[in-house]
Prior knowledge:
The chain is mainly alpha-helical. It has a single domain (3-134), classed as Methane Monooxygenase Hydroxylase, Chain G, domain 1, CATH 1.20.58. It is built from 4 helices and no strands. Helix 1 packs antiparallel against helix 2.
Amino acid sequence: xxxxxxxxxxxxxxxxxxxxxxxxxxxxxxxxxxxxxxxxxxxxxxxxxxxxxxxxxxxxxxxxxxxxxxxxxxxxxxxxxxxxxxxxxxxxxxxxxxxxxxxxxxxxxxxxxxxxxxxxxxxxxxxxxxxxxxxxxxxxxxxxxxxxxxxxxxxxxxxxxxxxx
Length: 165
C-alpha cells in the first residue's frame, strides 16, 4: 500500500475511534445526570479501551508522517504543510480527513467540559448533603433546654433532631 494511502487509512481509523469516543462521552453525560455510578464506571473502562486504540493508531500516524517528511524537520509538519508533500489526488482526501478529525476533537472537548461541570455540580451536592448531616456548616442561633439563647460561637451544632426529646 502506498504511504499516502496508508496515511489516509490511519486518519480514517482515528476518525472512527474518535466518533466511538464521542458516543461514549455522550452516554457518560447521561449516566452522570442519572447518577448511575456503576454504569458510569463501566463506561469509563470502555473509554480507556478506545483511548488505547487511538494511542496505537496515533503512533502509526506519526511513523507515516515521519516517513513522508523524511525526518528532516525539527518540528512536526502541520497538515496543510504535509498535504503539499502528497500527490494531488490524495491531498483533498487527507485535508478533508484532517478537518473531520479536528471537528470531532472540538466536539469531544465540549463534551468533556460539560461532563466536568456536571461532576463538579454532583460533588457540590454531595458535599452540601454531608455538611447538613454532620452539621459542619451550620451557624446561627441555638437555644438551650431552658429556652435561653446559646452563644453564636458554637462550632458544630447537630442538625439531626433528638427523637427522645
